[in-house]
Inverse folding.
């Protein structure tokens, strides 16, 4: 019988389906992502120290592989490791893998079948992103079990994995490098999104106990081609995306350019957004052994803060959902720079060395109105209480990572070993303050706010934080015989934090272990279990005194299966996560509280194709039982001018529904027509940890149509929230909610060249 485990894992071809259904083969090697440790949550660049470190790290990355090239002749193609092998696939198999990829690399840093990876792992391909018109990360994550996404303050992607908020319990990575928490993640240049649900701290550090999301960007191709997307529709929205790639005749050089422009008036009054981005990338095959990848990305956003509608007496008042109570003083200007340099050298069939040097900077200037509820004063019109939150924030992450991949052993026992070291310097310079705004009428809002504003005494929080991380890590995946796979790993983080502005200093050293066991009785089924621990130093946005590291552990049991001749892939997982000293947002939206939380639940993901047809489908369901084990909150009493302490232990965390289900169907016809649609159900959820206000459950429906005659163009139509369902998302404050978009129509054309 063929060994279901010990056969070498071969990454899938980078096949991509166009809207016409034809397949474009991608020939560059599979990219295995690297880890990025968690940083303290805001960040400012202190340029000189970091800039001086960059040449040293870059030299290290270039010197090691260069030295290796002098040891002998290049490895023959037949001896190159399995990470570069490409199998020939039928058109149907290519389309299946493009719609629901079989392989992923984020969980183990080596491309491997998801069925044989002993942890819950989801992949959203660019085919699905395009078909669903998922332009930002939050839209893409609706396909993943156990994940819900929100637009925090109307400008920032915030999500929940297994009941835990991303700001304190998860990581976002771009090509394996750490991303700012206060950001919007566009998908215009993504090949796929990989989501690890469960402990990822053993490779990526930080507080990645609940999970990690890796945005894998498109890489240069060794061929000339490209395309343009042009769409427009509801709320004065205009969207354009550009993709162009070319390569040299011999295949030694390849270049790609992705670009984005989007502008919208917004579905809420006077709250438009404009963004643009540019992402050139270059690949150089220096020799048969060595490949160099360089990538630069610039993003610019002129955004509008939005804290939604105030709560009146614990309910949403009868006002237009499009009404805005934001002041005229609001502004949100955000610039992001990402630089990546990846170097991969193959020393033979059993050893690969990877180096990554990365720099990420975020510069943000914002002033946003925060709504603190609506109140009735005698016979007069209810008034909306407001303050203005001003934030100047500069973040910079500079790091280098070395990964050594070994393939050891033969016969009954085989090791796939990843050993690495991460060195990282993080900078965070921020100034946060709150200012009084005059109240505004709930039913007849007339703006009277004029500068200068009076700051609220004691509300200012500043930091000039430098964080140094040195972290070795190892993961050994052991195939024992034909049916058993054992994974053992750990990462040791040595972290130093120095806040020059507040005087806070701290050293945090701790290991994050991981152990997993997988049993595959045959080619179709695999049963797995894993255990992991993680810790994270306190975020700089935890403004409470006595900041302590967060700690947590998870145990997970699951089963994965490929059924119906590979036409149905299923994954079922049961888990429990216990986490201590979690930073929890107070009613200003910042992480001022701490508590202990437990989350346990069930997650199911199904993907497949009906028979031999081109009807594809994705389904996910999650049941989440989350509880605040110990949580007390201090709330200011405006009558006594003192703080009252409330015990909310035993309550459910805010914005965590107990059930979420999502379905997407897609059918491609021979005449060039594609018809797709889906439904999403989200159960009731609380607005705050006091569990005083509960929002209703909701169901939304989407549809999409595409048509091509086989030429260079494809017409597209997207209908979102078909029934105009009213539902709410998380606001900046727990005394307000953000109305979600109603019915939205987007139409346009794709041009290929």
């Amino acid at each position: 019988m063929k060994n279901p485990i010990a056969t070498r894992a071969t990454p899938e071809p980078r096949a991509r389906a166009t809207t016409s259904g034809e397949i474009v083969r991608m020939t560059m090697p599979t990219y295995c992502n690297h880890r990025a440790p968690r940083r303290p949550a805001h960040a400012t660049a202190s340029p000189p120290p970091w800039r001086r470190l960059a040449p040293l790290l870059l030299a290290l990355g270039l010197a090691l592989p260069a030295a290796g090239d002098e040891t002998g002749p290049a490895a023959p193609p037949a001896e190159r490791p399995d990470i570069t092998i490409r199998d020939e696939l039928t058109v149907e198999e290519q389309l299946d893998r493009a719609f629901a990829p079989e392989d992923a690399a984020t969980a183990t840093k080596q491309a491997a079948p998801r069925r044989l990876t002993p942890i819950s792992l989801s992949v959203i391909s660019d085919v699905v992103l395009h078909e669903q018109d998922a332009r930002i990360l939050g839209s893409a994550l609706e396909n993943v079990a156990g994940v819900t996404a929100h637009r925090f303050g109307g400008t920032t992607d915030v999500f929940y994995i297994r009941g835990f908020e991303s700001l304190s319990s998860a990581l976002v990575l771009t090509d394996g490098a750490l991303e700012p928490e206060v950001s919007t993640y566009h998908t215009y240049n993504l090949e796929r999104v990989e989501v690890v649900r469960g402990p990822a701290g053993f490779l990526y550090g930080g507080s990645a106990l609940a999970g990690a999301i890796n945005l894998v960007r498109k890489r240069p191709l060794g061929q000339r081609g490209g395309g343009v997307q042009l769409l427009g529709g509801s709320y004065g929205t205009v969207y354009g995306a550009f993709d162009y790639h070319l390569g040299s005749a011999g295949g030694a050089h390849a270049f790609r350019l992705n670009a984005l422009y989007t502008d919208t008036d917004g579905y809420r009054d006077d709250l438009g957004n404009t963004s643009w981005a540019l992402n050139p990338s270059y690949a150089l095959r220096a020799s048969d052994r060595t490949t160099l990848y360089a990538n630069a990305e610039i993003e610019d956003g002129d955004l509008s803060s939005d804290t939604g509608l105030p709560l009146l007496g614990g309910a949403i008042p009868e006002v237009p959902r499009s009404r805005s109570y934001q002041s005229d003083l609001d502004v949100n200007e955000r610039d992001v720079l990402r630089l990546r340099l990846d170097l991969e050298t193959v020393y033979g069939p059993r050893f690969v060395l990877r180096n990554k040097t990365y720099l990420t900077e975020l510069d943000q200037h914002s002033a946003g109105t925060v709504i603190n509820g609506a109140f009735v004063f005698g016979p007069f019109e209810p008034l909306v209480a407001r303050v203005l939150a001003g934030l100047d924030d500069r973040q910079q992450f500079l790091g280098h990572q070395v990964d050594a991949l070994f393939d050891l052993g033969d016969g009954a026992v085989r090791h796939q070993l990843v050993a690495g070291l991460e060195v990282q310097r993080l900078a965070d310079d921020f100034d946060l303050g709150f200012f009084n705004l005059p109240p505004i009428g709930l039913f007849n809002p007339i703006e009277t706010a004029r500068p200068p504003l009076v700051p609220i005494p004691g509300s200012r929080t500043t930091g000039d934080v430098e964080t140094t991380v040195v972290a070795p890590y190892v993961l050994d995946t052991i195939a024992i015989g034909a049916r058993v796979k054992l994974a053992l790993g750990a990462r040791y983080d040595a972290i130093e934090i120095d806040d020059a502005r507040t005087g806070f200093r701290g050293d945090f050293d701790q290991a994050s272990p991981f152990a997993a066991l997988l049993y595959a009785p045959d080619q179709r089924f695999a049963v797995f279990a894993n255990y992991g621990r993680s810790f994270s130093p306190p975020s700089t946005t935890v403004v409470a005194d006595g900041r302590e590291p967060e700690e947590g552990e998870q145990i997970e049991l699951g089963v994965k299966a490929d059924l119906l001749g590979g036409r149905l892939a299923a994954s079922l997982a049961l888990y429990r996560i216990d986490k201590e000293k979690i930073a929890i947002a107070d009613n200003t939206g910042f992480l001022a509280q701490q508590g202990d939380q437990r989350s346990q639940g069930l997650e199911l993901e199904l993907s497949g194709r009906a028979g031999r047809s081109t009807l594809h489908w994705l389904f996910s369901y999650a049941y989440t039982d989350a509880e605040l084990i110990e949580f007390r909150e201090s709330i200011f009493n405006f009558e006594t001018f003192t703080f009252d302490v409330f015990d909310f232990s035993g309550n459910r965390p805010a914005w965590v529904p107990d059930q979420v289900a999502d379905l997407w169907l897609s059918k491609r016809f021979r005449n060039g027509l594609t018809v797709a649609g889906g439904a999403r159900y989200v159960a009731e959820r609380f607005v705050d940890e006091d569990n005083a206000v509960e929002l209703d459950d909701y169901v939304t429906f989407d549809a999409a149509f595409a048509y091509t005659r086989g030429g260079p163009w494809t017409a597209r139509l997207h209908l979102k929230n078909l029934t105009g369902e009213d539902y709410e998302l998380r606001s900046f404050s727990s005394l307000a909610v953000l109305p979600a978009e109603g019915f939205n129509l987007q139409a346009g054309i794709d041009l290929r060249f």
